[in-house]
Specification:
four-stranded antiparallel sheet; flat; Maf protein; about 280 residues; Dna Ligase, domain 1; 3 domains; five-stranded mixed sheet; alpha+beta; 14 strands
Length: about 280
């Protein structure tokens, strides 16, 4: 692909739509590699789109949510260029027994009428939560999930949102709140605080997603020069090395420009023209 720095963004103001200090990792990278001037605003409440602790339910899928977040920020504060991110936590999509952090990052350029997304899925996460009745067990769990550098939440239960304490970052407060909930409810539910400013591990994944976004932006369309010339379709059907039947292996990538629609197909992107017979439904049913 045509990888180059482009002049779509140089000197423009870019809004980072974040309430949770994500600009600490996003801003330096975007300013260095795109030449933009990043800004944040104090009074943009991203929690209206959903909270990890459950007080506000996320009503849309992550991609719709991050797009709405970015567009709302642009409309509210008069920017034509903005970036927003959205994280999701749960089982890894391929390895269900492992927790994962799934970070989506979107750049929307209203002036040039295109958007570019990047996604980073990482097993580097401390995402966890359990009920506790014993102080020693609380301490073991806290150490396991990297407390106190990573904040914790104490609450009545995972399902109850009317009584919870977020952003706990020291041992005295943790033990105090544990006993308060234990004395009142018989036990306490303690979970990781996944807000970016309270979770350095998550912040590092957001940084990787930002690096991916920059790489995509710097992949320019050969026809119009617009950034974000990226894979739009993955075509499977790589032929089996023994029988020639199509397999689930990747045959080609189809790249498409988000601005002019120009397309280009890259055959055999992994430098393999034949698939291992072990992946063939005929040779290895």
């Amino acid at each position: 692909m045509n990888n180059q720095k482009n002049d779509f963004f140089g000197g423009r103001k870019l809004l980072i739509a974040s309430k949770h200090k994500k600009e600490s990792v996003i801003k330096p990278l975007l300013e260095e590699h795109l030449g933009v001037l990043c800004e944040t605003v104090e009074n943009f409440d991203t929690d209206i789109f959903g909270t990890f602790s459950g007080e506000t339910e996320r009503k849309d899928d992550p991609l719709t949510t991050v797009k709405k977040k970015c567009e709302k920020a642009m409309q509210s504060f008069g920017f034509d260029l903005a970036v927003a991110s959205e994280g999701s936590f749960g089982p890894h999509p391929s390895f269900f027994f492992i927790s994962a952090d799934d970070e989506l990052l979107i750049l929307i350029d209203a002036k040039n009428k295109f958007e570019i997304t990047a996604r980073e899925i990482s097993t580097a996460t401390n995402f966890n939560g359990k009920f506790f009745e014993n102080e020693d067990d609380v301490k073991k769990f806290a150490e396991q999930v990297l407390f106190p550098s990573h904040a914790l939440i104490v609450r009545q239960s995972r399902e109850t949102n009317d009584h919870l304490i977020k952003g706990i970052t020291n041992w005295d407060d943790l033990i105090h709140h544990f006993y308060h909930f234990k004395n009142k409810y018989g036990r306490a539910f303690i979970e990781t605080d996944m807000r970016a400013m309270n979770n350095p591990t998550r912040m590092s994944v957001i940084k990787k997603a930002t690096e991916q976004l920059i790489q995509k932006i710097n992949s320019a369309c050969a026809q119009c020069g617009a950034p974000g010339f990226d894979i739009s379709t993955i075509n499977r059907g790589l032929p089996c090395d023994w029988c020639g039947a199509p397999t689930n292996g990747i045959l080609s990538y189809l790249y498409q420009c988000k601005k002019c629609g120009y397309q280009k197909e890259e055959m055999y992107p992994h430098n393999k023209t034949k698939a291992d017979p072990g992946s063939c439904n005929f040779c290895n049913p």
